[in-house]
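S.,

As promised, the guanosine-5'-monophosphate run. Input:
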Amino acid sequence: MGTIFSQIIDGDIPARIVYENETTIAFLDANPLAPGHTLVIPKEEYERLNDVPDDVATDLYATVHRLVPEVEASVDADASTVAFNNGEAAGQEVPHVHCHIVPRFEGDGGGPIHAVAGDAPDLSDDELDDIAEEIDSRV
Ligand code: 5GP
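Predicted complex:
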């Protein structure tokens, strides 16, 4: 048995599906942080972004890109926060990769994405150079 999201894809549990194509599906979050809070997922089950193959990643982003303006417009939002909790340590609870589209409104009391991490580290220029080189060497 797959995750709760695979059960939604299979029609075994209900969801308010707002968009579907061959490889991706989007539905309203059952516990919305704002009106219109939408989740976009690949139909194939991958736990994290890190596990998603290139072609699925392309499809996933295309669906996010298509939905963001329509979700915002549907609830008359001023903006949106678009994010993945990518892994348990980042707060991911459902182990089926999903993108949150959270509509945002002027004065809604929420914070920017900068508010989600812990205390900001104090990194030296050398440390920043090393990190940048390490990432660059891997991609
Ligand atoms: P995560 O913390 O894994 O990034 O977010 C999982 C999200 O899935 C949560 O926002 C939660 O409200 C939503 N969710 C969990 N179970 C269900 C469900 O059965 N149906 C729908 N539509 N959303 C769900």
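The pocket of guanosine-5'-monophosphate is lined by residues 4, 13, 15, 27-31, 39, 85, 91-94 (CB under 6 Å). The chain has one domain: 4-138.

- D.
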